[in-house]
Design goal:
The chain has 720 residues and is an alpha/beta fold. The chain has 22 helices and 16 strands. The chain starts with a helix and ends in an 11-residue tail after the last helix. Bound molecules: beta-D-glucopyranuronic acid. Beta-D-glucopyranuronic acid binds next to loops. InterPro entries: A-glucoronidase_C_sf, GH, Glyco_hydro_67_aGlcAse, Glyco_hydro_67_aGlcAse_N, Glyco_hydro_67_C, Glyco_hydro_67_cat, Hex-like_dom2.
Length: 720
């Protein structure tokens, strides 16, 4: 007998509610990053399921192998709807984790030579005639990276049956730098407050830190500096070290070491000494004791990051000592424990009248070879400061006797904060691939210490992570965290390939979704360069918070804080002359590079005004005048954002409503702000050049005074 219609409707409603529940519980707010492990298309899932039915851990597994297996279970449950079972007996479809020394490696045709401590092999093989997928590595850490490698492979909708992949990092320290203060504020952070709850630690260990560790391990990051380079000495007090130790405990199973920014004057501030002079034995003793105390609680503590004699921070220069003397003193305190010092080369001084771009080189290059073995000098990608585009830092290749660590900025202090889409994979790639003209080769080669034995090597990225649900302030900013990790692991990975990987895992592995997302990513940074700082211009952002345009600012106390210092525009022309006729900063590069950058005819258009002051009617390589070319680039930047918006609308069928809508809104903000940047810059430069706008160029929406009058006292991420 047919059921009454009312019952059937009720049943239907209940069924619908049940179906909807899990969706609501796992709202797509971006929390899961690229580790969403979303269900694959059924045809792909069906092919994978029988091939990955079980996991066999290596003999006597430790905690790292355990988290690797747990991640595989989680990932496969999500992607193919069934978690593999743990097995101790080989069966068809086993994921077989093999560590160095296991005789089954040979049988599976897996060679671990050359993989180092962190590399891995993924291979479809037969062991005892049983078809398996081998994850082979020398260490459990390698097995963890291999597990993430396998999940990344699957997350792109790739087949599993013919797997044969080897991967090993070329750089040892792959480290995030958090610029987090102890009060929770993140300097240059646009994704909320700090992840570290210093108040509740060590008692409350936020499970979110495990997700943080998973995300980092999934892209090969193996270290994190917890606190701001503008450091408070308090982090080194016993009370805080307990908190640091709690974080270290949570990150350890994922192979992530904790580091701290050390304030050079800490012996005075928290040690009761009168001086922090690096040659004073009492100071050395204090640091040694401090290191002992840290290692007693955190045996695998990574070491110190130091910003010294830079922007008001204390340092060895306060006592007439060199950066090497300061760094080596700290290095001696850490050496017995295997710790390292990451000593920053980001220095410039208002008392030095030289071009700011020359100052770090002038101070550090003469110190080549004077640093202890466990010191690595951390150099920003460019000589000024994380601009949308800068030429590579002249120190790369110029200190062959000193390990140099590349510092990149993942947070977009100068590229539109959290709201603008600006994929930094292309920026990072551009720097890494640049030939320094020195025997060492490209920046990537220098950083990898190629040909320098097993010296210290490293890459640092200033994190864009905060306590926002989506971690990075926007979905697309997650791509920058991802790209940093992937390039730190393997600088040879093409930025577009990384973009595709990220798009597949973050949105959908379908080609129709990957293509527009990748197109957006790949054009985005150039769009920002165009509407903010085209043709090699730099540092034109508003004062202090760096939000929005301020090319007219010229009244700040320190000359090199003023945008007018950088663009030098007047009625005759624009640009900073760094050729022999100017500051001669080009002479800090290797001869071939110096020659190329020293002549406007051989300087690429996109760096032209970084190196040269040129008349407005100078002809660009495109044939247009500098003035017309400048305006055209501002316009192109605005047009590119419109194009990004169009591409994004094509992704609607493949992206959940929540992330789609938020990204669309952010693109609206970006479109408005691109226009603002363009109009304010055009209005200002026109007031200086007194030239008419090229035919067809739209006049700015407002007059210059309007743009000058805008203030943003509460913009996020300010420094202290
Ligand atoms: C600049 C930032 C400032 C940092 C400084 C640094 O504006 O907040 O403290 O770099 O890297 O980009 O030390």
């Amino acid at each position: 007998m047919a059921r009454p219609i009312i019952t059937r409707v009720r049943r239907l409603l209940i069924a619908m509610a049940v179906l909807l529940l899990p969706a609501a519980a796992s709202a797509e707010d971006g929390f899961r990053l690229w580790l969403r492990y979303a269900p694959l298309a059924e045809a792909e899932a069906a092919a994978i399921r029988p091939a990955l039915t079980a996991i066999m851990l290596p003999p006597e597994p430790g905690p790292v192998a355990a988290v690797a297996a747990a991640e595989l279970e989680r990932g496969l449950a999500g992607m193919v709807g069934r978690a593999p079972i743990r097995t101790t007996r080989l069966q068809a479809g086993t994921i077989l984790m093999l560590r160095e020394g296991d005789p089954r490696l040979r049988e599976a045709g897996v060679d671990l030579r050359g993989l180092g401590d962190e590399g891995f092999v993924l291979r479809s093989a037969s062991v005892g005639s049983v078809p398996v997928t081998v994850i082979g590595a020398r260490t459990e850490q390698g097995l963890l990276y291999g597990s993430f490698g396998l999940l990344r492979h699957l997350g792109q909708g790739r087949a599993i049956d013919v797997l044969d992949l080897r991967s090993a990092p070329k750089v040892r320290l792959r480290v995030l730098n958090h610029w987090d203060n102890l009060d929770g504020h993140v300097e240059r952070g646009y994704a909320g407050d700090s992840l570290w709850d210093w108040w509740l630690l060590p008692d409350w260990r936020d499970p979110r830190l495990t997700d943080y560790a998973r995300a980092n391990a999934s892209i090969g990051i193996n270290g994190t500096v917890l606190n701001n380079v503008n450091a408070s000495a308090e982090i080194l007090t016993p009370r805080y070290l307990e908190k640091v130790a709690a974080i270290a405990d949570m990150l350890r199973p994922y192979g992530i070491k904790v580091y701290l920014s050390a304030r050079f004057s800490a012996p005075i501030e928290i040690g009761g000494l009168q001086s922090a002079d690096p040659v004073d034995p009492a100071v050395g003793r204090w640091w040694a004791q401090t290191a002992n105390r840290i290692y007693a609680r955190i045996p695998d503590f990574g070491g110190f990051l130091v910003k010294a004699n830079s922007e008001g921070q204390p340092g060895p220069g306060d006592y007439g000592r060199s950066h090497a003397e300061g760094a080596n003193m700290l290095a001696r305190a850490l050496a017995p424990h295997g710790g390292v010092v990451m000593w920053r080369a980001f220095v410039y001084s208002e008392t030095d009248a030289a071009d700011r771009a020359k100052q770090a080189y002038a101070e550090f290059q003469p110190l080549d070879g004077r640093f202890d073995d466990n010191v690595i000098v951390q150099v920003k990608n460019g000589a000024i400061d994380f601009q949308p585009r800068e030429p590579f830092h002249p120190l790369f290749g110029a200190m062959p006797q000193t390990p140099l660590m590349l510092e990149l900025q993942i947070t977009k202090e100068y590229l539109g904060f959290a709201t603008h889409i600006a994929y930094l994979g292309t920026l990072f790639e551009e720097v890494l691939d640049t030939d320094t003209g020195h025997p060492a080769g490209t920046v990537a080669d220098v950083v990898a210490g190629s040909g320098q034995g097993d010296r210290l090597t490293g890459i640092a990225g200033v994190a864009n992570i905060g306590d926002d649900r989506d971690w990075s302030g926007s979905t697309f900013n997650q791509a920058n965290w991802y790209a940093f990790g992937r390039l730190a692991w393997d600088a040879a990975l093409p930025a577009d390939e990384i973009a595709r990987e990220w798009a597949a895992q973050t949105f959908s592995p379908r080609a129709e979704a990957i293509a527009p997302v990748t197109d957006i990513l790949m054009m985005s940074r150039e769009a920002v360069v165009d509407y903010m700082t085209p043709l090699g211009l730099a540092h034109l952002m508003a004062t202090d918070h760096h939000y929005g345009p301020g090319p007219w600012v010229g009244d700040l106390a320190r000359p090199e804080w003023n945008p007018t210092y950088y663009h030098r525009a007047d009625r005759e022309g624009i640009g900073f002359d760094r050729s022999v006729t100017g500051s001669n900063a080009v002479s800090q590069y290797a001869p071939a590079v110096a020659r190329r950058f020293g002549d406007p005819a051989t300087t690429p258009d996109n760096l032209l005004l970084w190196f040269h002051h040129l008349p407005w009617d100078h002809r660009l390589s495109t044939g247009e005048t500098l003035w017309a070319g400048l305006i055209a680039r501002y316009d192109r930047g605005v047009a590119r954002v419109a194009e990004m918006d169009r591409l994004w609308s094509r992704t609607r069928p493949f992206v959940d409503a929540e992330r789609h809508a938020k990204t669309a809104t952010f693109l609206d903000i970006q479109a408005n702000e691109a226009r603002w940047w363009r109009d304010a810059s055009v209005a200002y430069f026109q007031s200086v050049s007194e030239l008419p706008l090229p035919p067809g160029a739209a006049p700015p929406a407002h007059n210059l005074d309007h743009y000058k009058s805008l203030t943003f006292p509460h913009a996020p991420g300010r420094g202290d």
